[in-house]
UniProtKB/TrEMBL annotation:
It holds the Pfam family LCAT. InterPro entries: AB_hydrolase_fold, LACT/PDAT_acylTrfase. It comes from the Eukaryota. SUPFAM superfamilies: alpha/beta-Hydrolases (SSF53474). This is Phospholipid--sterol O-acyltransferase. It comes from Urochloa decumbens.
Amino acid sequence: MLLEPYNQTDHPECKSRPDSGLSAITELDPGYITGPLSSVWKEWVKWCVEFGIEANAIIAVPYDWRLPPSMLEERDLYFHKLKLTFEIALKLRGGPSLVFAHSMGNNVFRYFLEWLKLEIAPKHYIQWLDEHIHAYFAVGAPLLGSTEAVRAALSGTTFGLPVSEGTARLMFNAFGSSLWLMPFSKYCKADNIYWKHFFEGKVGCPHRQQCDEAEYTSEYSGWPTDLVSIEVPSVRDMGAYPSIMDITENITSSMECGKPTLLSFSAREVSDGTLFKTILDYDPQIKALVYQLEKYYQGDPVLNPLTPWERPPIKNVFCIYGIDSKTEVGYYFAPSGKPYPDNWIITDVIYEFEGSLLSRSGNSVSGKPNNSSGDGTVSYNSLSWCKNWLGPKVNITRAPQAEHDGSDLQTVMNIDHHHGQDILPNMTRSPHVKYITYYEDAESLPGWRTAVWELDKANHRNIVRTPVLMRELWLEMWHDMHPESKSKFVTKAFRGPLRNEDCRWDYAKARCGFPEHCEYRYIFGDVHLGMSCRLKNTSTNLLQQYL
């Protein structure tokens, strides 16, 4: 699977390409044992088919996740094909599509929207989006990147696979897409792409990055803490990087005593290449990442992906992610004394967890904790960046994730929201109950809706197969598609079972739970009481109450 790091070509003896069709997104490794372990969108596809969506109406658009964005188009014409897919779907189905993207798939979709601006006439851009895309569901989107990408670049991340971290690092750094997930500052934006293309006429020139004053007056580039701290035995070429190597006399005297120097890097210094250029003397192989950063990101002809993005100009946008899981937000590295790719070791890890910062070593951590924590892979500030897409007035609803009768429902209307600031709902939580919090805005932009869903304890990699998310996605889809729907968003007042699988046996009351919807009905082959609990009415009848 390795690519040539500089030109992103295949290994001479092995050519790999992404699979196509639904099989590419259901399971990574189909099989009786490996299938459930590697399931991706399989449960969502099954859910849609079970509720009447035709299988040929579900279109998978997998991509080669090893390639940087411009190479997806250059080698595979991926974005041309994606545009054509939307246009064919419109002709076949007679209406616009719903887009679901998970994790880095959101980065790909963002790039497609920017590529589309340059592909069609600007005055037809919004019209094309309105005709072809009804709603965009961004699930687990790393909108400001993920610190795990830094770990993978310097020491390797195996994701539980039976390979060494060094081998994982070797592979990760060969992929041009590895930098696509790098964390970056929320205060720095790229230059105007239209000016660059239509006035300067310089195709392929680097994107000039403009940072707000807040980048230099605030700490950590809007992140909870410094993302990377590296212990180095000596300092070389101090003049080359004065911005991050302002060594004081105390540090100099420590170096003279043979003590290592601790260099810290913010999100901006990671995304602009300062980190990699600084450690080049200690890790010469890192020059491949510097090359990839300059060619495929800073020099990208469409967009520098390592910049924050505004709300997509799509009528209906739903941003969905998990919160309150222990998530890595910073690392301490030191040279290991071994050759590449094992030349760095992690000496400490900084985590965010439920509004506080922790370290693996137990040492105290300086920083500004987020109001919550991330989904186990992406930090909260990156996931929740989409709250900036909400307008000045927001309705907030908090409800249990499990089926409920509305007794534990909390709603606050018309909460003031200031751009750039998080929204903190003044709501209570019952112990041991997982909630889903909805932030909804259907008033700021006429005809447009924006919603943010936060799911307690939903894991980044498993969120797309959680029954709670499947239920909520389907109810919102059903609400939007039905001509008799009256409210802007689907009601949150209650949640009952929609499938036989949702009915369960209540051992405390010796009956099926939700007796108004479920009944005991044994069928040969049932092996426990819960399997014999089935819906009284059809799913279609049950769905009517959500209009």
